Amino acid sequence: MNMLSGMLGGLFDKEKATFDTIQSTLEDVAEELGCDYKDFFITIKATDEKFAMRFDIFRTDSGKPVRVREITLKEILNIEEE
Q1: Residue 30: phi, psi to the nearest 5?
Q2: pLDDT tens readout for residues 45-62
């Protein structure tokens, strides 16, 4: 039972870390755009058969989505570009 508890604890820690990372990114994007949470969204799209991903920021303008820019995984994970 102790091993199972450790595994479940690790899973919840990963889930919290992932949630915190995504939440922080959303806050950063809202600040960058100077808008509220209601005024933008981020999409994740597979770009090939190996499921490479592309992330795009959209802002809503009169209820219509307008693409602002791509956001990289490094930006989301807060990894400095080399």
Answers
A1: -60, -40
A2: 999 999 999 999 999 988
